[in-house]
Amino acid sequence: MLKHKMILAAAAASVLALPSFARESRLLDDGWTFSLVPDSGSLVQPFTKTVDLPHDWSIELPFDSKASAHNEGGFVTRGKGTYEKKINLTAKDLADSKYSLLFEGVYERWTLKVNGKEVGFRPYGYSSVIYDITPYLHAGVNTIEVDVDSSHGRSGRWYTGSGIYRHVRLIKTGEIAVAPWSLFITTPAVNKSEATVDVKFEIDGLPEGKSLEAEVKVLDPSGAVVASSVVPVRSSEAGGTLKVNDPMLWSPDSPSLYTLELALKDGGTVIDNVKETFGIRTISYSASEGFKLNGEPVLLNGACVHHDNGVLGAASYDAAEARKVRLMKEAGFNAIRTSHNLPSPAFLDECDRQGILVIDEAFDGWRDQKNAGDYHLWIDEWGVKDVGDMVRRDRNHPSIIAWSIGNEVIERKHIGVITTARSFANECRRLDPTRPVTEALCAWDRDWEIYDPHAEALDIVGYNYMIHKSESDHERCPERVMWQTESYPRDAASNWHKVKDNPYVIGDFVWTGLDYLGESGLGRNFYKGETEGEQWMAYQWPWHGSYCGDVDITGWRKPISHYRDMLYNDDEQLYMAVREPNGYYGEVRTTMWSVWPTWESWNWKGHEGKPIEVEVQSRYPKVRLYLNDQLMGEKEAGEANDCLAVFEIAYAPGTLKAVGVDKYGNEVDNVTLSTAGDPVAIRLTPDKTAMNADNQDLVYVIAEVVDAEGRVVPDAEFPLEFAVSGNATLKAAGNALLKDPDPYYDSTATTWKGRAMAVVKSTGKKGGSSLKASAKGLKPASVKLTSK
Known about the structure:
Layout: H1 2-16, E1 24-27, E2 32-38, E3 47-51, H2 70-73, E4 79-89, H3 91-94, E5 97-103, E6 110-114, E7 117-122, E8 129-132, E9 140-150, E10 168-174, E11 177-178, E12 184-190, E13 194-204, E14 212-219, E15 225-233, E16 237-245, E17 258-266, E18 269-278, E19 283-286, E20 290-293, E21 296-297, E22 300-304, H4 318-330, E23 335-337, H5 345-354, E24 357-361, H6 379-394, E25 400-407, H7 416-431, E26 437-441, H8 452-455, E27 460-464, H9 470-476, E28 482-487, H10 492-501, E29 505-510, E30 516-517, E31 526-527, E32 545-546, H11 559-568, E33 574-579, E34 588-589, E35 598-599, E36 611-618, E37 622-627, E38 630-636, E39 644-650, E40 655-661, E41 667-674, E42 681-686, E43 690-691, E44 698-706, E45 719-726, E46 728-734, E47 748-750, E48 755-762, E49 767-774, E50 781-787
Parallel strand pairs: 22-23, 22-29, 23-24, 24-25, 25-26, 26-27, 27-28, 28-29, 43-50
Antiparallel strand pairs: 1-10, 2-3, 2-4, 4-9, 5-8, 5-10, 6-7, 6-9, 11-13, 12-13, 13-16, 14-15, 14-17, 17-18, 19-20, 20-21, 30-32, 31-34, 33-35, 33-36, 36-39, 37-38, 37-40, 40-41, 42-44, 44-48, 45-47, 45-49, 46-48, 49-50
Helix pairs in contact: 4-5, 6-7
């Protein structure tokens, strides 16, 4: 009997003895077999080819004036696509292991199959999903299949893209491991000398009665260990507290990132390990003191930003996401609203690294449809799940300051909307009690105050184009904290006053920071005789994108971008641009989201002697304008005059100079615009010259047409031909004119306003490469690149 008991005890011990295990996560992006059955009536025939991820099939096909995506979707082809990839696993690979697939984003209505068996279905194209595929695997070759259905015409009100447009990762752990997205790091108590770091996590596969321990370390931005602790793990939920001395606080001006390393141990044996970056910072908000970050007041100068990457479509390359954040940061924004869906993980990583605050938004609409194929079909079954997955995935990002649960929902006059808002808001608060919940409310008629019960479900109330109601709302609801979650670009100055003068209005988010694909023609100016009206009022072909951004898709900052930046920041003191004379190209018509066409140009041939307006933006108290060294006038500027002075003068070619004048009358700064000569050459300017040889990295190259003196010729339109040689490929080429139907996937682009852009992608090989641009009648240009 004793011998029998000893045998049982030995057997139990062997069952509970856990092998050492190191978590593995690798990209599964290369070498997928892709097949497409296009929309009915498409000009494109079915095909099969090999692709690498991220992959957006819609941007790789011609724009089509009859496409089912129509105005909203950017006139692209959708359809049904199938992706297939094979992975080879040995019996040793599978032993004592758990395999998961992380899909960061698939648009849309997609089904995962492994070895012919369905693993799961997800309708929403913006949610990240993790599937445990262990039960479906076997030793040998395994087939992963992803079936994507983007054939439902108008499922969104903007360009959505189609396919597996974000990364896929294969994750291998032991059978006992930290549960996906369960690690939650907060900093509940922070002062200059010490920060409290709370850590919570969950364990998958822990047998009843089994005890483990977690060794937790915090590393500062230099990699030095600044805090450590051993946390007992006796159930599926565990946690602990650490103290960090003299913390470096995260902020847009100083985005200091710490790293938490967690090693799950059985005795001294490591059986899982996870690593997560986080920031030490505090946020607070009130109607009396406004928004504070780390105890300091911050005015939120925000931009709404869609998920697409311009000429790349929805394809979410890390380098493209980094560029998008950089462009917004360089334009002076300190906050972004991810309208109207979850962004990519890479985008949020870059907001953390570069320092920009984020409203993380889940949905555009709820139960009442905006389009026949949109999320209203799925919200009852999937709404709370998608909100919860958003919060669990993203809650360790210090950049995120609020969760947004919706935008301009159609059913806002139905009493049930309050129940929906509370349901989503409560799920956010359950999973993350440290951040406020918001939603973008609106009114398309005279009703507004009737939405007070809806607003009560929120911590901060979003106002879309309704901030003119802020004063009366503050009188009625004095504790309400507001931000304008969408605003017209032309209202930059009045909205700046709202934010600056009223602590209960904590920020303004312009629609939009960047031009984007879809909502074709929004923000356009047009000329008499062209299609009249707003984007939704008429068929807008050949427009396939929206021109309402402060920055265009080539990265050029429009004059409105410099102006908004100057209002909120003091980095730029003086800027000048010229308003297009009405009638020069045609009689100008503006739209709701447009500003008057204004350019960095002093080339107006044929307009000599006629009046032209020069816009001088300045933080100096006065500015002077000179033309060919003759004083044209002096005007007041600075904050007291909303940083703007407009001069009307008679046009003459030459050099225009704006001068900043300080309070003592001294000329202390100047900017110039000169008339360019005839176009003679192409100039190429890359955003970098070295790439990672990972088949993922990108270089953005600006091509400009210049005169003999190297000045950009602002009215030059030349068809450029791009060619790449060596260890790189040409990924895309285009210009900022969003009614040019030339597709982005080919090697040509016509300059608009003297400018075009090419995107070069690395391969998996190290070595050199070059990009050449040529055009008839111009001296060609080339740029050398390296892949390391």
